[in-house]
Amino acid sequence: MSLFGTSSNTFGSASNSSLFGQTASANYNAMKDIEVNSPPDDSVSCLKFSPAILPSTFLIAGSWDNNVRCWEVQQSGQTIPKAQQTHTGPILDVDWSDDGTKVFTASCDKTAKVWDLNSNQAIQIAQHDAPIKTIHWVKAPNYSCVITSSWDKTLKFWDIRTQNHILTINLPERCYCADVLYPMAVVGTASRALLIYQLENQPSEFRKFESPLKYQHRCVSVFMDRKTNSPTGFALGSIEGRVAIHYVNPQNPKDNFTFKCHRSNGTSGGMQDIYAVNDIAFHPVHGTLATVGSDGRFSFWDKDARTKLKTSEQFDQPLTACDFNAQGNIFAYASSYDWSKGHEGFDPQKMKPHIFLRSCFDELKPSSKKS
Fold first, then answer.
1. Repeats (WD): which ranges (predicted)?
2. DSSP 348
């Protein structure tokens, strides 16, 4: 029996060949990668692959159409729609349980849910006073919980067995981005505040400081020290086409740096179009990273060599989310409108959401160049 029960849970049709009609742009799939079947109906906010413990690979996507969807990704790269669940507001974030049996969803409807994939049932486990921006599952030696952050300026910890909230940490402002890799959590808020929390025993604030980036941050991703296999720093992306690499305890102050990305090459007059960095993902094997931006491109980077490994062709709409699978051989990324150019920039006939899968293991290998 399939992990997700019977095929009655599936959504949409297995084919999306008619989805794009005659109005699809030639650049909607600029890299000619494999398309995910039956994509969301509105902008894609988040993508998350299943943990390595599962024998098969599954992909979860949250969308502004209020739905969270799950696909099985076959070895060929083809996708099978498996199941979906809904909120009463847009989905802003998703995460998996460590055993791969559950998915956690955070929504603009101010609630978070746990979705049991075997029964295809979802129940509410969290409530905030404003939309929930991020959700993460933590499996610690002495506790397990879901961590939610919200625009109500709080970080909350929840026991999913009882749906009880067990701890609240007040934030200085609304949460704009967060990432968790036990025992470290990083939260970025409005007014460019960054907070690092240690999660061992009783979670507590470790450090608070101002962002190294001058403009509003959009995304953050914790990275591992490949020798100790523990979290050691994070990459922070902003609306100003820039990423900061920040070590929590740098051996050398110069280890922390920023770099420009998702910008046009500029004109003879020196003017340059600058785009938001919408998501950052670290490769689970190589430790290199991917960024996706409002310029409709993805780029692969080696932070240690401080070099760019690859930049994609330009898609006809922004790239809004990305993730690597546990083995690091599939890069998933979503193209959908992010409203960065307002309603005037949206063409509903042309700008349909898409999710693509790219074979990527070799492209993410570290550069031979040293910084």
1. 84-125, 125-168, 277-311
2. T
Rounded to whole angstroms, the Cα distance separating 16 from 5 reads 23
- What are the tens digits of pLDDT across the range 342-351? 777 777 777 7
Q: List, for the chain, all residue ranges whose pLDDT scores fall below the cut of 50.
A: 1-2, 4-23, 371
Find how far residue 319's CA is from the centre of its chain: 11
pLDDT at 347: 76
Q: Are 221 and 234 in contact (CB under 8 A)?
A: yes
3-state helix, strand, coil in the chain (%, to 5): 5, 50, 50
Cα–Cα distance, 266 to 72 (Å, whole number)? 41
Q: Is 47 helix (H, G, I), strand (E, B) or coil?
A: strand
C-alpha distance from residue 33 to each of 27, 236, 311, 328 (Å): 12, 27, 14, 16
Count CB-CB contacts under 10 A for residue 327: 12
Nearest Cα residue to 199 out of 142, 281, 133: 142
Residue 149 in contact with residue 158, Cβ under 8 Å?
no
Which amino acid is residue 29, in one-letter code? Answer: N
183 preceded by a cis bond (ω within 30 of 0)? yes
Structure tokens at 248: 């929590």
- Rounded CA separation 8/83 (Å): 8
Looking up tokens 């969290």, which residue turns up?
Answer: 126
